[in-house]
Amino acid sequence: FPATCTYVHTRPMHAQRDQRQRKNARNVRYYSKEMTSATNDLLGADPLIGLSPEKKELLRRLRESAADLDKPEDSDHYYSRWLIARKWNLEKAENLLRTHLKFRKENIDPIRDWTPPEVLRKFFPGGFFGEDRQGHPVWYDNFGNLDFRGFYLSVQKEDLFKLKIKHLEENMRLLKEYSEKKGRYIGSVTSVIDMENLSFQRHYHWPSIQTVRELLAMFEANYPELTKRIIIVKAPKIFPAAYNLVKHFMNEYTRQKIIVLGSNWKEEIQKYVAPDQLPEAYGGTRCEPDPWCTDYLNPGYDVPPEYYLMNLMETSKENMQKTTVRRASEHLVQCDVKESRSVLSWEFVTSDYDIGFGV
Q1: Rounded CA gap, 89 and 61, in Å?
Q2: Quick check: helix, strand or coil at residue 47?
Q3: 0.85 surpassed by pTM
Q4: What is the DSSP string of 264-284?
Q5: How far apart are CA 280 and CA 284, in angstroms?
Q6: Is the CB of residue 312 less than 8 Å from the CB of residue 305?
Q7: End-to-end C-alpha distance for the chain, whole angstroms
Q8: DSSP H helical segments within the chain, as ranges?
Q9: Residue 358: is it exposed, middle or buried by C-beta count within 10 angstroms (0-12/13-18/19+)?
């Protein structure tokens, strides 16, 4: 075609915020019912132990039907992940595996040598440290310190996906090391999620919430049964409402592995992780005098404005247009394209509230 046009359709979303918060408040009553305390020590146990003859046959059939696929490994433990994720439905498990391998070829293999941007390396929270009482590695995530808006303004969305994929691939590599080191199967990770500083003012950034939902969906579809247990600590009063925003992107198995500890969480967490494996900041004895074990864990920090893309972009600010999108209104930008097969690119930033953006 000789020419085409594109437009920007923006719509303020903050007008709906109060309504969503009221709806979330009504949903709090489901919180304690769904988030069960999965304290059974069988969590994370070898799934092949005590397997029934029927399930052994399903494993054999999945291995046979997947013989033509290029897979990262070829073991009963590997195949069991996909069957468990689909409640031992062979057809659904095979579809899930085939979809994952396509995802792997398109998204995982190309980033093996990818280095995250400096802003992610410096300020994005998380890291592995120690092991739980059953010998599984422990991942710490200071989610409450995650600067949603700061990262939204500093990196491309695809960089966040690449970072989490690298983290998950690191999980898989570490689990193999643990299995070899301990001489038994270690196939899942305990996660400690620190919710201190979680607030609507800090974290209610709708584009970032949508990204979190997409990341959860990606995790569930491509890394089944990687989670042994999720331990939530320092959860504020708004946590149930925040959880309601994302829970539908986690499957039932994952939700049942979530444990929310109360005000005496430093004592409770020791049921799952021994003190000599816990950082001092979490009630343990490790890394004194550095309570956060920052040689291993990034506690997360606010992103300095000098990392914002608008301050780094090649296009000078003088060449950008500034406009105000008022409540319940929209602003259209038309681009006249003179040549076919042109590539359109744009950069934009909002200084206040959440603005819907579409092309």
Answers
A1: 11
A2: coil
A3: no
A4: THHHHGGGTS-GGGSBGGGTS
A5: 4
A6: no
A7: 18
A8: 17-27, 31-34, 53-65, 76-85, 90-103, 118-123, 148-152, 157-182, 200-203, 206-222, 239-246, 252-255, 265-268, 309-312
A9: exposed
CA distances from 182 to 49, 169, 259, 334, 336 (A): 17, 20, 26, 62, 63
User: In the structure encoding, which two tokens stand for residue 193, read together?
Assistant: 């999620």
CA angle 14, 19, 25 (to 5 degrees): 120
What whole-number distance in Å separates Cα of residue 194 and Cα of residue 145?
A: 8
Cα–Cα distance between 108 and 186 in angstroms, integer?
22
The per-residue pLDDT for range 256-291, each reduced to its tens digit, is: 999 999 999 999 999 999 999 999 999 999 998 999
Percent of the chain with pLDDT over 70: 84
- The three-state secondary structure class of 189 is strand
Ramachandran class of 137: left when φ > 0, alpha when ψ lies in -120 to 50, beta otherwise: beta
DSSP 194-236: E-TT--HHHH--HHHHHHHHHHHHHHHHHSTT-EEEEEEES--
Q: At what angle do helices 17-27 and 239-246 cross, to 10 degrees?
A: 100
Alpha carbon of residue 136 to chain centroid: 19
State the Cα–Cα distance between residues 97 and 86, nearest whole angstrom. Answer: 10
The amino acid that residue 142 corresponds to is N
